Amino acid sequence: MLLLRDLPSWAAFQPFSASRAYVLKGKVPNLWSMATVVVALGGSLLRPEVEGRQTWLQGMVEVIVSRVESGSKVALVVGGGAPAREGIELAKPFIEDVSHLDRIGIAATRLNATIVREALSEGGVAVSAKIPESIGEAVLELEKWDVVVMGGTEPGHTTDAVAIRLAIQSEAEKCVIATNVSRVYAEDPRHNPEAKSFDELTLSELQEIVGPPEHAEAGSSQVVDPVGVGEALEHGLNLDVLDGRDTEVINKSLQGENFEGTRVRG
Question: N or C: which end of the chain has fewer CB within 10 A?
């Protein structure tokens, strides 16, 4: 039987959470190496017109429960998707300031983040009650909780870029970019079905594909934000780019297994 004296001093006085409950039940090993991973969930994964979206959300809850039980800390950064694009499109004729349009998109990301956060909480995950509004706040919450969910932060910062910055500042082992395409393509496969796809890329090669690290128009969408790629390149952060519509693909990436998608390394 595991006794309190058998735990290292730092573990004995940590705030109680789901993964630490497993320590008290005798499932010890993973606590000594709590890996952190950040996942950027494209807002399109939650869009209301997609059939089976509740099944997808339940699958995400199961994936996160599994990672927490194995001793990982997980931060989810959720995009705005259709609500962001529709809101920006509605307001665009009346608003010239791009930062004001960005704020509409940010509000949509936080709505989607709240949906994911509440689903995780109902699923028994020890998730922070806060939807952080800055990367610094998210880092602090991740120190106290095994799971943190957030949306955008400020105008000019896409949720991809936020996820990558959060991964860098929290010293995560990698950032998973879960989008609605199966991998990185040389061109948009929706416009060119014959576009070349990649199983592996360097960060420099990905930067060449997505373009220079510059802020894009509010509401626009790319497989990975060029600004985020630039920061990943600067800090040598590993990225996994995959189709997040299949939660098992996300799960395989988080477990370090082979997955269908693109591995991007320094």
Answer: N
